[in-house]
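User: Teach me something about this protein's shape.
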Amino acid sequence: MKFKTAFIYQVKRQLLSLGIFLVFWFVFTFGISFILMIVSKGDVHTTNDFTFATIAYIILLSCMMMKKDFRFFIQNGLSRGHIFLVNVLSTTLSALLLGLMTQFTLHQFTFGNGDTFRFTNIFVTIYKPSQWLISLGLIWMLLLWINSVAILVGGFLNRIRGWLRILLIIIFIISPTILVGFVGATMPTNHQITIFVAQCVGLPNGLPNIGGLSVTLSILILINLGLTYLFNRRQPIVRIDG
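Assistant: First, the predicted structure itself:
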């Protein structure tokens, strides 16, 4: 299998899964909103955040594909380096397309009877980008970072089996809560940590700074991709019987 063939194959799979996710998500969210509009006597103003459903979709898709795609590509003659590039390029493209979809849906739908339905994104709400392209770049980098984390976790989980895998999955799920709790408990007592964390997340002095957040995300993405490349080079080959 050639690199171009593998890339096209991967992109088609991700576009198909992305299309299925978007159809189900839009039908579900609009369906609930329309039911509320029908049963309610007054004006209904519904807000739906696109962020968390997108994060869950990316993590699930990347972890699953990282395991299956490596075995499939390696058995079809693709080198480990090309497998890594295929995954990076395809996920970068899918993150960009999902970012475009998110950006185009960030507005309010108003119906004739006064009911409204609005899509939002929590990061756009917090950082308030001044231009459309800056908003797209912010969403794209956040999605790409989440993608890189999911690929890294998926590659790591492929190397372990049994109860240890279950334990690590649990740790991965609860680690953000533990980290946020630790930082939240430490920040009030340490002013330097407060300043450092605020600069890393792009909120120095409580004011949004997309540039600072972009630098942090770029560093984290490069670290995740570097670790993924190392896992990819050392990952054992497990044959899939047809």
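Now, about its shape. Residues 51 and 121 are 5 Å apart (CA to CA). The mean pLDDT is 76. If you'd like, I can walk through any region in more detail.
User: That's plenty for now, thanks!
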